[in-house]
Structure prediction request, 281 residues.
Amino acid sequence: MPGRSGPTRKPRRIMALAVTFVAVASLASPVGAEPSVGDVLGAIVRVQSEIDPAARTANSLGLEREGHGVVIDSSGLVLTVGYLILEAVSVTVTEPQGASQPARVIAYDHNTGFGLLRTARPLPVTPMRLGDSGALKVGSDIVVIGSGGMKNAIRAKVVARRDFAGYWEYLLPDAIFTQPLFRDFPGVALIDTAGKLVGIGSLIVRDAMQQARMNPANMFLPIEALKPILGQLLATGRSQSPRRPWIGVYTREHGNRVFVTRLADEGPGGAAGVAAGDIIV
Prediction:
């Protein structure tokens, strides 16, 4: 009823924020250890990028992209999801206090989906420590936090751990799926019970648990996929992992068949004569 909705919504919102605050405090403040709640919230920044209109991903991912990033060292190194900064001509990072500064793209790893930035000046925050995403199991309690502080944090649970295959020829082993949904998901931080970073937000998927269609969840890049390649990304801008074959097609599965829906511009698939509507066997 309209007359009752006004007085009930605000207390519910306050209660939700209070519960989340308690959750973040308990996750980020294990007995006898750091980091503090302020450390965790302060390490999460806003990332905005502008893309060259001639870029290959301009039409599919947009000319202006926005999401989150996590500061992971004292020199201004920011970890985010790679598509936010892919083919960017300029990137801006906004600190929790509201100050903004330019950043440059350090690396993008197609195999995992991670991206790295470095700000023009070191950020006045405590860097987030990397946790153990391998320890997360179905049912694990976690907190999802975006830039903007406590108002942009939710309690969540891991609902699935499985490989994820994307229609754009992308395969991510042992991805992390969580509920409830965090809708402003690109680059958002997944925090474990020790207040450490265990994942970076990538997508919303409809079939997180596979057996149940239309069961939407967030998908996170597991931090364990970053650790073996982080040094390589910092040194050369890319990992030394073998490059995966690329056909340049976008696909859709229907009736146990894989159909080509469209082709990447100037991709090898189009050059070989593959066309939209073809079936891949």
Notes: The longest helix spans residues 2-28.
